[in-house]
């Protein structure tokens, strides 16, 4: 079988597979690079490709050296019309391109590829290829290859170009080099949400005020990230003003806290954090975290009681009374709520409202082993140590002795 028949069969196979494979992406011919350049004898030159589109996961490139009067028979883009998804059968696409790249001159050159402009500039200055992401160190008259993001450092997640460096091996005459580069764009990744960008957003989310109040914040920030991906392309989100980004984090954060599947674990963790903070007498922090539970409608009787107690310990008596009354609406038989409500009235100089509550439950237990009177005595001791006004404490204790 001659070479023409082999090529014909290969192209038929590739064309059929195109119908199925290209659903996951496409060859971006609009942003393909085609440059014809003249390299002077013994010169090095660097060529930057056209901007690589977001979601580029593979590129196919072809390099051809021509005699002065020769023209390319077929462009690389036209060849790739018959080559499907590079993740499928066209793993051999570079080989197919090589077979179809039949026109070349007698001159040869070496080349190297760089992932950033600084390295390319070093190459142009001194010819070093130590930091090249790909190097062809044997002079060739033509070459065609494919590079993929998972196997080559030439295509970096947030890089928007590649730099080709050429070194002429003709010591006397100029060389004409044709460089063609065509990117493959993964449709799913074209939104810009690659691994590095997702990590960036997760870290930004964890630095927000709301996330700092939630430990651990991993589940919360993953939820925020998922919502951001649905609403924005990565590049769109990055172009927002700082105040717009903050609002987006806040809005999506609120939505995540309101989602039942996510919130159960988050609010359970918050309750544990609040309990630890109260034990450490860090009442202001406890108030802040308890407030999240209340704002999102997840507070139970114990939450309102803890919040009310924390307000008492920070001398915010009106807020304490308000929170404790909210808890009372949920369960007016919870004696810890009733006791703290009495404390709130007492500390707020309203002995008249506190007295009937203290008297009403004086013969009951607040737990299975702790009496109401004993609990009042313990609380008063704690209040004295915290510097709360104690002028009416003895008056209440005498009242409970009757």
UniProtKB/TrEMBL annotation:
<dbReference type="InterPro" id="IPR011990">
    <property type="entry name" value="TPR-like_helical_dom_sf"/>
</dbReference>
<protein>
    <recommendedName>
        <fullName>Tetratricopeptide repeat protein</fullName>
    </recommendedName>
</protein>
